[in-house]
Amino acid sequence: MTFPGRLGIQHRDVLQAIAGRDADVGIIFHHLARYFAATYPELCAMLTVPGAEKFSSTIAMAQTVDPLRASAAKAFTEFFLDVAREVYPRYGFAAMNEAEYGATMRLE
């Protein structure tokens, strides 16, 4: 299956592939599957794959060294760190514990 102008299929393309009958199933992030199943119940349903939790990913944010609009970058960081704690679990993202939330990650 191809999508014009795309190098590959992204997780957001799964619903299009199912709706267009180009695919019978697709594997996507839990929060997106939950959203698609609730929003488009006539097209799809969400199934949990046992053992898939060990393949989870970490949600992260990287700051630039010299942002073009420093005050906007700072405001976004503050907003994200304040709002994400409450909003993410509400919409199916995994909840982070206090040690994980806002922790600095080393990029290697």
Topology diagram in text:
Blueprint lengths: L13 H6 L10 H10 L30 H21 L18
- Per DSSP, what share of the residues sits in E-state strands of 2 or more residues? under 5%
Report helical residue fraction: 25-40%
What is the count of structural domains?
A: 2
Taken from the alpha-carbon principal axes, the silhouette is: globular
Structural class, by secondary structure, is mainly alpha
Q: What is the H/E string?
A: HHH
Q: Provide the low-confidence segments as ranges.
A: none
This entry's quaternary arrangement is single chain
Count helical runs: 3
Rg, Cα atoms, Å: 17 Å
**End-to-end CA span:** 34 Å
Report mean pLDDT, rounded to a whole number. Answer: 83
Let me know the largest β-sheet. none
What would you note in describing this structure?
By secondary structure, the chain is mostly helical. The chain folds into two domains: 1-55, no CATH class; 58-108, no CATH class. The chain contains three helices and no strands. The protein has helices at 14-19, 30-39, 70-90. The longest helix has 21 residues, at 70-90. The mean pLDDT is 83.
Summarize the structure.
The chain is mostly helical and 108 residues long.
Q: Characteristics of this structure?
A:
single chain, 108 residues, mainly alpha, 0% strand
